[in-house]
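Complex 353.
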Amino acid sequence: MADFPALQNDLLLRAARQEPVERTPVWIMRQAGRYLPEYRALRADEAFFDVVRTPALAAEVTLQPLRRFPLDAAIIFSDILVVPQAMGLRVEMIPGRGPYFPDPLRTVEDLRRLRRPDVQDALHYMLEAITLTRKALAGKVPLIGFCGAPWTLMAYMIEGGSSKTFARAKGWLYRQPEASHRLLTLLTDVLVDFLIAQIDAGAQVVQVFDSWAGVLSPDLFRAFALPYLRRIGEAVKKARPEVPRIVFARGAHASLAELADGSYDVVGLDWTVDPRQARKLTGGRVALQGNLDPCALYADPETIRQLTHQMLDAFGPRGHIANLGHGLHPDHHPDHVRAFVEAVHDYVPVTST
Ligand code: CP3
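Predicted structure with coproporphyrinogen III bound:
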């Protein structure tokens, strides 16, 4: 493992462990992205996956939002779909349309096309980007590594791109449960290797994105998503216990209590969840992350400030990491992003005397 500069801002790490903090830490999903003019300028000359595959460019894009805003963490610039790529599927990013798999998994026989990669080899570019970024951060804030959850990756690998319903992928769960479990198991094995490799490359926190948890019924989530999320959380905890793990299962309302079973330190919430209810459901067993509605950033800066302060009141000062309830949108104004970040900074908690 490389020798990195000492961390100067550990608010995120302490909040994840539910330790006292002087101030709630804040970072934002998709904090690097198209709402930043400097990102659009860089992307004008480079395809999305070329940026992802070039460590110097990925590091540069990771740092862009940190030069503008006093964020308490960096998240490595990459994509969850690098894992299906490493397993043998082609994935393109079509501007304005999103991910596209020219040759997705159609039948159970297609599982034979997948391999279990050596992550050090197949995903070396992301690991190098992490090491490079961690050095460039010089201890300013911690660096977050990430991966997609098994169900969300399976959904893309079968659907071949984004979808409202992910009906084709859900069809597998109902028709081919055994093959689905085989695919989810393979993905889980790769993802455990990948997160541990990211930590060894320099990631100080890891987040698992189950972005499409919300298309599953509670029973499907419990059968096909939750056990694999748990396996990942437990395996990474066992291998690298000092590194906090965050799980963000968007729309998994029915399973919030089960997500707080100890396999993760932090449960991320989307904006449809009431923070006070989430506190009750998770009973202080985990820290919570989130969850201002990304569309609240379309309001004027003073309203953003008020809404952010209301959100901070609702979560309380202990065990909270401020974030949006999902990623920033390409048409968000950087000044409104700033209003959100600054509102977290200037918040004074309501104290009971
Ligand atoms: O700043 C960060 O959050 C780090 C970088 C990051 C990206 N993708 C960059 C990206 C992260 C953490 C992701 C995760 C990711 N990728 C998820 C989980 C989070 C979520 O949004 O639910 C998912 C589902 C994907 C798959 C993906 N990548 C989709 C569906 C799309 C297209 C939708 C869109 O926003 O355009 C992407 C493309 C993508 N990934 C972009 C960025 C900045 C925009 C593409 C571009 O620059 O042309």
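The chain is about 45% helix and 10% strand.
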